[in-house]
Specification:
The chain has 113 residues and is mostly helical. The protein is 59% helix and 0% strand.
Length: 113
């Protein structure tokens, strides 16, 4: 249903684009493996992706910490990987709905603030 309401946005930040990939993981271990690869690349400075300023997910905070060289790789066990995936999905949905409401002239950005 989500795709019927919205045209795909082109201004995705890193966590939104990552959510599109990670939501297709076949299971918990694949999700953990992917998050470990992302965290390693961030910590080693191999990637310096853009995240929206308003994105307060744990993963977005890790990205910002990596810019300053103070990123600590979290223990990706238990429910944390699922929680991180859920957070970036919620962030994407918030931005999708905001974009839709503004594009359809149902509201303004100031009214949503």
């Amino acid at each position: 249903m989500h795709h019927m309401l919205f045209s795909p946005r082109k201004d995705l930040d890193f966590t939104e684009a990552l959510w599109e990939k990670l939501s297709g993981c076949s299971g918990y271990q694949e999700l953990v493996d992917c998050l470990q690869l992302v965290c390693a690349a961030l910590q080693q400075g191999k990637i310096q992706p853009m995240v929206h300023r308003s994105n307060q997910s744990q993963l977005a905070c890790l990205v910002r910490d990596s810019f300053e060289g103070k990123m600590r790789v979290p223990d990706l066990d238990g429910a944390l990987p699922i929680q991180m995936l859920a957070e970036i999905g919620v962030e994407k949905m918030k931005r999708d709905y905001t974009s839709f409401f503004i594009a359809e002239e149902l509201t303004t950005l100031n009214q949503l603030s």
